[in-house]
Amino acid sequence: MKIVKKYSKKWKKVLKIKKSRTIIFLKKDTNKGEIYMKNKGITLIALTVTVIVLLIISGVTISYLTGENGIINQAKDSKKFAGAVEEKEVLNTSVAAAIGKSSNSKIDEVNLKKYLNQNVGDEVKDYTLEKKDGYYSVTFTATGNEYAVWENGTVQDMEEYQKTPYLKLDPSELNALEKGSSQVIKAITNVNNSNIKWETSNSNIVTIQKKSNTEITVTGKNNGSAVITAKMDKLETKCQVTVITSPKEIILSQTEIMIDLSSGSKTVQITPTITPDSANKNITWTSSNTSIARVDEFGTITGISNGEATVTAKTVNGLTKICKVKVVTSPTAISLNKTNAVIDTTTSKNMQLTAVITPASANIYTGITWTSSNDNVVQVNQQGLVKGISNGLATVTAKTENGCTAQCRIVVGATIAGINLAPSNSAIEIEEKLQINATIEPNTSEETLIWVSSNSKVATVDQNGLVTGKSHGTVTITATGRDSMVANSVKVTVQTAPKSISLNITEKTIDLSTDAKSFQLIGTISPSTANVYLEQTWTSDNTSVANVDNNGRVTALKNGDATITVSTGNKKTATCKVKVVTSPTGIALDKNRATVNLSGTKTVDLTATLTPKTANIYDDLQWSSDSASAKVEKTGKYTARVTGVSNGNAKITVSTGNGYKAECIVTVETKIIGITVSPNETEVEVGSTVTLTATKKPSIGSTEGLVWSSSNNGVAKVNDDGVVTGIAQGTVTITIKSSSGLVKTKAKVTVVQSPTGITLDKNKVALDMSGTKTTKLNATIQPSNANRNTGITWNSSNTGVATVDQSGNVTAKANGTTTITATTQNGYTAQCSITVITSITSLTVSPTSSTLESGQTLQLNKTINPSTATEGVQWASSNTSVATVSNSGLVTAKSAGTTTITFKNSSSTKFASCNVTIVSSDIIIGGNTGFDATNVILKYNNNGNLVWKKDVTTNSYSNAFKCDINAVGTFKDGSIIVGAGASSYDNVIIKYDKNGNTIWKKSIPTYYYNSKNQYYKINTINITNDDNIIVGANSQYDGAEKIIIKYDSNGNLIWKKTLPTYKSGEYYYVEQLLISNDNNIIIGVDSYSEGRAILKYDSNGNLIWNKKIPTYTDYGSTYFYRIASMSLLKDNSIIIGANCGTLREDSTTPNALLKYNSNGNLIWKKDVTTNTRTNGFDCSIKQVLCSTDENIIVSAGGDTVSDSQDKVIIKYDKNGNLIWKKSVPTYYDNGETRYYRISTTNINNNNEIIVGANGSTDSSSKSLLKYDSNGNLIWKKDIPSYKSGEYYYIEKMNITNKNEIIVGVDSYSDSQGRAILKYNNNGELLWKTELPKYTYNSYNEFYRLTTLNIY
Q: Is the N end or the C end of the chain the one with fewer CB atoms within 10 Å?
């Protein structure tokens, strides 16, 4: 069955529904983009029916089928769960669309309902929508699921909504509160007995009066805006209130206007006046008909089309005034159906004229007045009817009411109305004649014409229209009616055209080798008085031979004939015949030297080439020889053959007809026909020589020499006398050939190489009888390619110290020195010196780490292996200002800090070390105030004297409420890191040196939420082993990020990491944070309802793993344990004390102790109980500590019930086995025996347990308890009283390196006292120092003890 409409992504999910134990597959149909629920081919309903039938058949009872947990109900639950998948999708889609349509990003009921109706599908079916306090309730009928939809778009199912604390205001915004009036604002929350604090951001604008815890009355005092804020625990919400003064009267500058759409401006500005002057001036403008007139937000009215509309101005409180608007269109032009007309009184005396007004939409000033310029000739009535009265000319005018006019010229009787002339424009020669013909309208007119020339010197015209040309120029010939003065004109141009054209050259021959390649042709037109068609056009009939440009410049291109023609504009022409030739400018032969062999080929052919190759005259060539040694004969137009006659040289010459020559020297000789060499195969050493002997045939009469060459001159080279020199190892071929290269022979020469030296890869080696006893010596012969005498002999000069085999392997035998020698066969040697020693193999010191106070000493114990080693040793301190070490290993503490004591051998190859930390046991107190004063950091020395006091401020605030000291850490060098700030305010980390000087102060990053930047609040600060700083910081909203930050010791931000979400859009917050031995970060995180977890990050901020804390069940519901305390074992295993957070007094579920390994795997889980109670409600885990002997100490016991129930200290081994459990002592108060409440627990260097225990009232005793590692109470010491009968209670506790106990105590009143107490390991009070006081207004109070650190 289809359950979800559309999804944009292709995916598959398998959803397990636990109750029904049925697996439902949601699978995307990739063809339809839809998701279907399938159950292995059968629907869920069909499967359920089938199972019921089978169960009935098999005897299963109906109650098992239909009971509360029956199969049918489980199937319904499955369907309901599946339906919720789509319902959430539908709601989220509809809410997003509704917000998109909202102007203020808030949901309104109309749009929500609109988009729900669009998106609800067949499976979701019906729903109900109901407006509730601060949200909309949407219930789907099919499943019964109910959801809360908030104005800001948040969607929650009702169960989630009821669990999540919320705080809303109704109304959430108050935009128009009348000055002097009041209105109730109501807080809506699901938290019972909530304590809500109300604030106004500006009491000059809005004041508030509390009616009840959840209701206030706001009153507008002055115009403006203020924000009302309601706060409840960590929740906060706001309502913006705008106070206004309502208008009493509105007046408009105009109440009636008319807009003419034909005018230059189509708009009119209406100015409103509102009284009183302090009233809200906002006006809403509307038009009753926007198709006729529109109005903008400023009261500017714009005409759109003809008609009437009403514009209304409305104030914020509903006062109105109107302006009546009339939109019209006036004429912009008028036209007549005729502009010229004739009335022939012999046929008809009347004529109708018709007027047309523009634009057609004109609706005013459309009346037309008709007039005649001469009523004696023409009369016209007001309907445009024209009547001819007498012969003559008159003009009729039509005029609109706003002055637009149009005219018609009318002729009455036989008077000429128009004249047509032909031809219209003409050209003639001087003395040439032209007849212009005139046609008169009407043709019944007998009026005569008068002909006139505008310039009789150019052309004349007689009274019959005959024109005669006189001189060059253009005239206007005009014919005019004698009576009517009607006229028309034509243009006549008088000109002279060419009769002929001639050229300055009619024939031309050009030699491309000697003559200029271009010449100028000039065309002369006759007669010289011609003034038209004077342009000359030049053409060539063979442009590949010669071309001509537009100015008559002819250019020869190649051999051939061409005719150049010039033409006038009236086609008169003249021509020039052009012949192009090329004579030789040089001659060359294909050979300038040649050889003829009388014992072989006796001839050679020569070919001549003319320059240029296109030469076509003087190309008959002549050939000759200047010697009897050779003769020459012509074989073609450009070729000849030379024949050798006798040894010697001959010059062969070829000549052109115009005297150019070329020569070739021909040598006639007798060539070699055979060569032999001896020896034809031999050897030679590199650097030596061998001589080869060559014999040629014929040995007499030959004119050729011999050429010697080597196939590889890098191996061997040969000179012209046949002497071969060896260069490098290898084989070459020596070639001997005749100088002509026609005859050759070869010899083989092998070059060989003997060693010229030998080296070893080591010239000095130390062997160790307690370490490396052998070494391999590698010999290298020079050169590396030696191939003769390469054998090597090895020997030792003292085999009692070390021996060597014939492969170069050396073995130590005893301490001492010897020389190993390697010798080649031809006597070259190389040596290596061998020294044999016995060295230290290992060093140890104990202890490997220690903590001392200044002035203390520590003797380190050393071990050297082997004990017979003779190698020297030495001690060193990495920081002698912290601690020094003597030659015997005695460490002396100097000042606070850390140093490494190193024990090493003289060769610095073996080391052992002890890490020493020197502490001063100074005490750092974070002191917060109870008022809006300044908080402080206090430093006391180990005698309880105040060393310094420093104010703590952020970068933005100094008052205490905004600068809470949240966490303090100390560095090994005595410097201090402080985290300070409050929720919603700037939070900082500050580093002080040990003298209290501020080194740096850094604001931690902000986050963006609810459309503004917000401040994180620091929760924890830890210092890593390499002195980096880890900060855990939380935001105040579930949906905002929580972070961990890493800074270096200089305050530089290394990285910032956001904690994971525990569900979509809601983040874990930091609860506890530890640093492991390897600088990994372990974080215990919490949420507001849905899970707790442990996170592990590496030192680079990468999340290694994320493990959820186990759950427990109480009264049928499942909950996550809450992390109460965390500690680490030496192997970085994590021990967690986990409390139940939802238990009641009658619950039976115990709290738990958990162990996780460093990979995040849960190793074991142990129930934690006291000796009298198992209920987690009465056995809350206070602290978990890991001792140096890898055991676990747990303090537990409830504070929420009577102190009659015991509180315990429990010891487990690292495997979770219970070692012992001890109840803390009791005290007697008001006639009752009661158990102390455990405040704090610590472990000293002897693994003894110190417990701070408080009685429940001011007058009850408070005690410090010490247990040995077996759980035996060693001593119990009462805490002093701060006044008679009232005792300090234990707030903080820390232990020094000397096992001295520093206790921070408090009283129940800021004015009664806070103090620091110091006890020795025997429980004796060494000193007591009260904290300083601060003064605020009339109060003189003690600082509150917030943190207590020792370094």
A: N
